[in-house]
């Protein structure tokens, strides 16, 4: 169900990109370009962080939905498909021991 919903939203975004509809927010984002799209991604990221920090799950879910939409717009603008994303996630999911090693910094030197 979730996959179908995301696909429907992504296909609507592609349709708005390819067949602009006046007064469509998606059309507006494509008209404004990548800088505006990425600004919105940054804003939505911050809003997810704040909502989650405040422990407001209803708000957090709404902000995650907004962030997901804006990320799908960026994907469409960049020519990245849902299949591209799925392939990377599938590959990463199959890896064991995927914890990155972090270097410690000696602040005294």
What best-fitting shape do the alpha-carbon axes yield? globular
How is the main sheet built?
A: none
**What's the name of the CATH homologous superfamily of the domain at 33-81?**
MazG-like
CATH architecture of the domain at 33-81: Orthogonal Bundle
The top-level CATH class of the domain at 33-81 is Mainly Alpha
- The N- and C-terminal alpha carbons lie at a distance of 54 Å
Count the DSSP helices: 5
CATH topology heading of the domain at 33-81? Helix Hairpins
Alpha carbon gyration radius: 17 Å
Q: What is the average of the pLDDT values? A: 91
- What percentage of the residues does DSSP assign to strands (E)? under 5%
Estimated structural class: mainly alpha
Helix content: over 70%
Low-confidence stretches: none
How many beta-strand runs? 0
List SSEs in N-to-C order: HHHHH
Summarize the structure.
By secondary structure, the protein is an all-alpha fold. The chain contains five helices and no strands.
Overview of the structural elements:
The protein has 109 residues and is mainly alpha-helical. The chain is built from 5 helices and no strands. It has a domain of 49 residues: MazG-like (Helix Hairpins), CATH 1.10.287.1080. Helix 3 runs antiparallel to helix 4. It is globular, with a radius of gyration of 17 Å. It starts with a helix and ends in a 16-residue tail after the last helix. The mean pLDDT is 91.
């Amino acid at each position: 169900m979730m996959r179908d919903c995301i696909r429907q939203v992504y296909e609507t975004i592609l349709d708005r990109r390819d067949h602009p509809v006046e007064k469509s927010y998606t059309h507006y984002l494509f008209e404004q370009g990548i800088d505006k799209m990425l600004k919105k991604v940054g804003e939505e990221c911050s809003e997810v962080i704040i909502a989650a920090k405040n422990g407001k799950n209803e708000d957090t879910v709404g902000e995650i939905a907004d962030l997901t939409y804006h990320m799908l717009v960026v994907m469409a603008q960049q020519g990245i498909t849902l299949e591209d994303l799925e392939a990377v996630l599938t590959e990463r999911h199959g890896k064991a021991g995927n914890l990155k090693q972090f270097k410690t910094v000696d602040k005294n030197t």
